[in-house]
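User: Can you predict the 3D structure for this chain?
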Amino acid sequence: MANERKIELDGLRGYAAIVVVIYHSILGLDGTQLDRILRGAWSNLGPYEAATKIFFKVFDGELAVTLFFILSGAVLFRSLMREDGGLGGIAGKFYVRRFFRIYPALLACLVVCGLAFAVAGRGVTMQDFVANALLYDFKINGATWTINAEMIAPVFLLLCYAGYRVGKEWGLAIVAFGLMYLLTLPQFDGYLVSFRISWLGFALGVLIPTRIGEMAASILPRWSWAAVLIVMIILRWPLREICIALLVATIYYRRADGIDTFLSNRISQFLGRISYSFYLFNVLFLELICDRLRQYPWAVAHPLETGVCVAVVVTACTIPVAYLSWAYIEMPFNRLGHRLTGRGRVVPAVPQSVPL
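Assistant: Here is the predicted structure, written as structure tokens:
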């Protein structure tokens, strides 16, 4: 299975992207809910707020983003494990492929969002565009802070890979824990902010393709994914992150009976393949719709049910745009990155047509 694509992970990523949209659609109508409800004590909440908090727990955008980081760590480290040659050459090729995977769709999205927001009167400047494109500031597309972490992570992954080449799992663990310690030093305060938030996800992800991940997945019963899914909704950092990694490991090694088939079906695969562009472009529709709805007191007073409706509309509007971005921007530039680095052609995991 060394060269086999883990298509179930694509499906998992697609549904995680939809969870992010639902989460942000509710928060977008009343940002005070984050501290007042999601992080507030149960004893201070009325019935409506308690129901909203439960909904946030089930459709937790922060959990979904952590899942993205763990998936990236697993998939990218598995890609490194398949490489041959010197570490310098591997690092250069790795970053070239990563650049062509991330940046073309990102730049296209920023152009579209910037123009649309400027027309809507949001005062977008060229300085805002450049800062967002450089992943320094995120005024045009706030969701792109995670892309900042994704572009820093390859340095972490390459150092872990160097440790792995020297000492296998022990070498990987020593390097990973050493880097984790460095990130806690006060000298890094104010730097690498996004990666300091997300490093645990990437660190757990790199363990999944190794014997450590395989051992963890083999110990768990094949039905355990359901229990892990429930537990990770309840727990907090860092136990929640560990549970997410266990869920990904069971799916990675195809030891999640039932959910494997669901994540492999045609619709799940389609959502997975467009998930990156979907994650980027949903912000365009989400911001425009929420800006308009916040003018109506009834929408702000009922953010849960209004937000769910917004999420349905945003998802429906974003899917065709994300498909076009995937088919005509992501895939061509992804193939180009692989050709430039000597990799074989990229084969999509779903047909080139939208399933009905």
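The first helix runs from residue 7 to 27. The mean pLDDT is 90.
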